[in-house]
Amino acid sequence: MTTAAVARRPRNQLLPALGMIAPAALGFLVFYLYPTLRGAYLSFTEYNVLGSPVFVGLRNYVDMAQDDVFWNAVRVTFLYVVLNIGFQTVLAVGLAVLMHRLTKSVLIRGSLLLPYLIANVVVALLWFWMLDFNIGIVNAVIDAVGLPKVAFFGDEAWTVATIAGVNTWRHLGYTALLVFAGLQMIPASVYEAAAVDGAGEWRTFWRITLPLLRPVLVLVLVITVTGAFQVFDTVAVTTAGGPGNASRVLQLYIYEQAFARGHFGYASAMSVVLFLVLAGAAFAQMRLLRAGESDLT
Amino acid sequence: MRTRITWGRLLAWVVLWFFVLATVLPFYWMLRTAFSDNQALAAQSFSLLPADLTLGPFKRVFGLATPEEAMAEGGSGASLSFWLYLRNSLVVATAVTVGQVLFSSMAAYAFARLSWPGRDAWFAVFLGALLVPPIFTSLPNFLTIKSLGLLNTLPGIMLPSLFMTPFAIFFMRQFFLGIPKEIDEAAMIDGAKPWRIFFRIILPISAAPVTTLGILTFINTWNDYFWPLLVGQTEESKVLTVALGVFRSQTPQGAPDWAGLMAASLVAALPIVILYAVFGRRVINSIGFSGIK
Questions:
Q1: For residue B109, what pLDDT band results from cuts at 50, 70 and 90?
Q2: Regarding the domain delimited by B82-237, which CATH topology (the fold level of the hierarchy) does it fall under?
Q3: How far apart are CA A227 and CA A84, in angstroms?
Q4: For A147, which DSSP code?
Q5: ipTM of the predicted assembly exceeds 0.85
Q6: Chain B, 140-199: which have a CB under 8 Å from a chain A CB?
C-alpha cells in the first residue's frame, strides 16, 4: 500500500507532517521518552530532590534485596494480583457467556460497565462505607443472620482479599464486555454444528467456546494483569497500607519512599523492578497467546 | 426436554440479574446515604430509604452549612470547598480532552495519510510508550514539572497528558486508515494542502471516533488520582479525587461523616454518570476496540 501511494503521490509531505506531529512529538519526548531514560538513570543514584543526584552504582538494588518491607510489598502485590485476576477472570467469562446466550440488551451491558467508569477513589470510599465494621450494611446483614462481624479493611487476614474484591467489582463488567466482544467473533456456524452433533451447553462451553476464546482471553489477561500490578488508589484511600504492612502494595511503597522520605533514587530503582515484572508478565502471557493460535486456524 | 431447557435458561437469567443488581445496588446505597443524617445512620442501618432525609451532607460538602449545623448532623465542622475542586476537575479534564484529542488526531493523520521518510518507524517508537507503566514516568515527570515551576498548578496537572497518549494516536490512526484514499486525493488535485484537508475534510467526517475518544479521555482524566496527588496538593490545585482522599483521612477516627463522604463521592461521580447516560452506547461499543488500552 505504501509503495503504491508513494508512486502515485511522489510529493514528499515531510514538512506538513512534521508540523502535524510537532505537539505530539513534544509531549512524547518530554513526558514519555525523557522520563523513561531519566528514571532508569535515577535508579543508580542517591537523590533527595533538593541537591543533585549522586551516582551510587547498584547500591539501591542491593538495599532493595535486603529490605524486608520491599519483599513484603512484592508478596502483597502478587497476592493481590492473583486474587483479583482469579476472581475477576472466572466471573467475567461466566458473565460474558451468560450475556452472549441470553441477551443483547444495551441496558444490561451498560449497567455492568458503570463501576468501571467511576473513579477508583469513589468506588473505594463507597465500599469502605458499605464494609464498615460498625454500621456498614454488609456487616449489619452478617450480624443479622447471626454470624460474627468481619473487619474487612482492619483485619490482616482479610484486607488484601477485600481490596481485591472491591476492584473485582469495579472491573468485572469491563472485563466481561471485553470477553463478550471476543465471543461475538466466534462464528455461529460452529455452535450450530455442535448442536447438530448433540453437544450440551456445558460440553460446548469447555470444548468449543473456551478454546476458541483463548487468544482473546490472553489479551484480556495482559491488560488486566498489567493494571492490577499497579494498584494504588484503592489502597491509598482506604487502608493506606495497613494494618501494619498488610496491604502495603509496591506502588504505595514506591510513592512513600519518594514523597514521604525523599528517597527518589531508591523509589526509581523499585519502579524499574516493577517495570521489569510487568514486562515479564506480559511476555509470558504473549507466549501463551502464540501457543493458543496454533490450535485455532 | 423442553422444561429442562426452560429451567436452565431461567436459572441463567436469575444469575445474570444477580450480577446486574450487585453492580447497581451499591450506587443506590451511595445515593441513599448521601441524603441521610449522619447521626441517624447507625440506628437505621437497614432502612432502604435515607435515614432522616436531609440535604445536610451536600450543604457540608459545598461549605453552605454553619459549623453548628454540620456538627448537629455528625459532620466534622471542617470547611470544605468542593466548588473549587469541582471547577479544577472540570478545567483539567476539559483542557486535557481538547488538547489530547486535537494533537493526537493531527499526529495520527500524519502517521496514517501523509507520506514522509521514517513515518512507520516513528509510529512504532511512539507506540512503544504504551509499554512503559505510568508509575515509571511519574517520578521523573514530577521532577520536570517541579523544575518548570508548575507544582501545585492546574497546568502542571494537565501537561503530561495534554499533547498525546500512545493510545489516542493509535485509536485515531486506525480510523484514518479506513477512510478511502480518493477523498484526500480529490482535494489535493483541487490544490488543497494537508493542513486544510485535515481540518476541512478529515476531521469533520471523523466526528464519531473523535467524540468517542473525547469521552474516554475525559473520563480517564476526571478519574485520575495518582498524578494529581503528586503535583496538585494545595487548595487551589486540588482536583475532586484528591480532595475526596483528603476528606476521608480528615474525618475523625471515632465517627466518620459517612453521609458527607457519600455526598462528596456522588458529586465526583455525577458528571461521569450524566456523560454516560447521554453517550452510553458509544462508550459500550468502544470497549471491544479500546481493549488494547
A1: very high
A2: MetI-like fold (1.10.3720)
A3: 11
A4: P
A5: yes
A6: 140-144, 146, 159-164, 166, 169, 181, 185, 188, 193-195, 198
